[in-house]
Specification:
Elements: E1 44-47, E2 51-54, E3 71-74, E4 78-81, H1 87-97, H2 102-106, E5 108-112, E6 125-126, E7 129-136, H3 163-173, H4 180-188, E8 215-216, E9 220-221, E10 251-257, E11 268-269, E12 280-283, E13 303-305, E14 314-315, E15 319-321
Parallel strand pairs: 3-11, 10-14
Antiparallel strand pairs: 1-4, 2-3, 4-15, 5-7, 6-7, 8-9, 10-12, 12-13
Length: 322
């Protein structure tokens, strides 16, 4: 690793994400793929919509992220994917459309240093988060650079996809990204004001329920949950709505623009967040999250990144109107 950072860490992106920041202008606009056949609901569940308490006021939250205050929100019914989009599903999209992702057009993406081979060529790191490395040739087909592949990982989440890439997939599939409110309602699985999709205990009965970091970050991961890097999209038991991996594994893009000051008060129906911004919301945490430095794998936690950024721990799932 050289001693010259690629860029100063984008504070909005949080400590377990990385942003392209000032390099955004390097990417050309990608063609908008034509929609596929009208979307069905295979692999989705219907959530009937209801009032729920969004956000948290707990002391262990990150107030600067805008997790609170707790507010009452009402949602209309919607369909949501039970799993994040897998490599297999994204491959179908690319085969049908020829779509080039932004990581492919930039020629690089952010990879966690611990996943790179020991002889990976020296590359630059994010200044305040040196575990993020600029990996030439890293993209959704090559998650750790040109010598890596999707072999044995077709059922894992697609990663190195930007918000713009996720939007392109959704348009082709006849779906859309969830609003932040829809995502949190779905993640809670019918439970009210709990930390995780299954309750308040991280490992109930000693059982791991999601893929996050165990050990001492970033040097040592004891892999008690069975994974170092991504896990299959259907790993671990689903929540009360039948949804898998709503927390941990990979961050998930949401439709909304991000603002830490965008608080809702009173009853709001189908909120969509700010009308404009520089960063899009991402939710759920990832396999790199650890309570010692990034306790953002709770259902109320939030973060954000620029719409063209891509990393090895960021994916998405889709919704559609009911």
């Amino acid at each position: 690793m050289t001693d010259k950072p690629i860029l100063e860490q984008d504070a909005t992106a949080g400590c377990c994400a990385a942003s392209r920041g000032e390099q955004r202008q390097l990417a050309a606009t990608s063609p908008d793929p034509a929609p596929a056949t009208p979307a069905g609901t295979d692999g989705m569940v219907l959530l009937l919509g209801d009032e729920f308490l969004m956000g948290t006021d707990e002391a262990e939250s990150y107030p600067s992220d805008g997790e609170g205050p707790v507010r009452r929100v009402r949602l209309s019914p919607f369909w949501i994917d039970t799993m994040v989009v897998s490599n297999a599903r994204f491959a179908e999209f690319v085969a049908a459309t020829g779509y080039p992702t932004e990581a492919e057009r930039f020629g690089w993406s952010f990879v966690f240093a611990g996943l790179l081979p020991d002889d990976f060529p020296p590359t630059r790191a994010v200044a305040s988060a040196p575990w993020w490395r600029q990996a030439e040739g890293a993209d959704w087909r090559h998650p750790e650079g040109p010598r890596s592949s999707l072999e044995a990982r077709m059922d894992h989440p697609v990663v190195h996809v930007s918000w713009n890439d996720a939007q392109a997939y959704c348009r082709w599939a006849g779906k859309r990204l969830p609003t932040e409110a829809e995502w949190e309602y779905a993640a809670r699985g019918g439970l009210e004001q709990r930390k995780f999709p299954w309750g308040d205990e991280l490992t109930p009965g000693g059982e791991h329920r999601m893929n996050v970091w165990q050990g001492r970050f970033p040097a040592q991961n004891c892999r008690e949950d069975g994974y170092y890097g991504t896990a299959p999209v259907d790993a671990f038991p689903p929540n009360g709505y039948g949804l898998y991996n709503m927390t941990g594994n990979v961050w998930e893009w949401c439709a909304d623009w991000f603002s830490a000051e965008h608080h809702l008060s009173g009853l709001r129906t189908n909120p969509h967040g700010p009308r404009s911004g520089t960063h899009r919301v991402m939710r759920g945490g990832s396999y790199l999250c650890h309570a010692s430095y990034c306790y953002r794998y709770r259902v109320a936690a939030r973060s954000a990144n620029t719409p063209d950024s891509s990393t090895g721990n960021l994916g998405f799932r889709c919704v559609r109107d009911a």
